[in-house]
């Protein structure tokens, strides 16, 4: 079985595949990892890259966003408060995929 690495390369060598995803400080021997990373980099320079993007995902990502971004404003006594960052809300006709609650 071939495995796809972070740069789209197909790996049949499991150790090389693991090294492609490993980061220094993951509990690995960093010197040994650096040597493996050199092999990975050399392989990534010559491998045939494979990226598969299902058509449905590409087309759905091109659709207009369902979010509106507005600043919240409210009056507290003599003060008018405005949010420092825009707040996202669903546009009419859209629904949140993951429900969330605010206080």
Secondary-structure-derived class: alpha+beta
Radius of gyration: 24 Å
Q: How much beta, percentage-wise?
A: 15-25%
- What is the makeup of the main sheet? 2 strands, antiparallel
Shape designation: elongated
The residue fraction in helices comes out at 25-40%
Task: Trace the largest sheet across and list its strands.
Answer: 1-2
- Span from first to last CA? 49 Å
Order of helices and strands: EEHHHEEEE
Helix and strand layout, with pairings?
Blueprint: E1 3-4, E2 10-11, H1 14-21, H2 30-46, H3 55-62, E3 67-70, E4 73-76, E5 79-82, E6 87-90
Antiparallel strand pairs: 1-2, 3-6, 4-5
Task: Give a quick rundown of the structure.
This protein is α+β, with helices and mostly antiparallel strands and 103 residues long. The chain has helices spanning 14-21, 30-46, 55-62, and strands at residues 3-4, 10-11, 67-70, 73-76, 79-82, 87-90. A two-stranded antiparallel sheet has the order 1-2. Strands 3-6 form a two-stranded antiparallel ribbon. Strands 4-5 form a two-stranded antiparallel ribbon.
What labels describe this entry?
103 residues; alpha+beta; two-stranded antiparallel sheet; 3 helices; 6 strands; 32% helix
Summarize the structure in words.
By secondary structure, this protein is of the alpha+beta class. It has three helices and six strands. It has a two-stranded antiparallel sheet. The longest helix has 17 residues, at 30-46. It is elongated, with a radius of gyration of 24 Å. The termini are far apart. The model has no long low-confidence stretch (mean pLDDT 75).
């Amino acid at each position: 079985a071939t495995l796809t690495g972070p740069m789209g390369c197909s790996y049949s060598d499991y150790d090389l595949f693991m090294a492609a995803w490993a980061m220094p400080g993951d509990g690995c021997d960093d010197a040994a990892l650096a040597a493996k990373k050199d092999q990975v980099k050399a392989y990534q320079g010559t491998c045939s890259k494979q990226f598969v993007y299902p058509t449905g995902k590409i087309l759905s990502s091109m659709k207009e966003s369902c979010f509106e971004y507005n600043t919240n404003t409210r009056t507290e006594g003599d003060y008018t408060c405005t949010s420092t960052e825009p707040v996202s809300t669903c546009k009419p006709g859209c629904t949140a995929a993951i429900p969330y609650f605010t206080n």
